[in-house]
Amino acid sequence: MYLPLLTVGEWLNETFHGFDYAIFTAFSHIQSAFMTVVANIFTFFGDELFVIPMMLVAIVLCLFKKTRKYGAPLFFAIFLGTLITNLIAKPLIDRARPYVTLQDDVFYKWWQAVGAHEESDKSFPSGHTTGAFEIAVSMCITFARNNKKYIAWLFPVIALGTACSRIYLCVHYPTDVIGGMIIGIFSGIMACVIASALLKWFDKSESPLIKKVNSIDLGKLFKKKESK
Question: At what angle do helices 33-43 and 154-168 cross, to 10 degrees?
Answer without folding.
Answer: 120
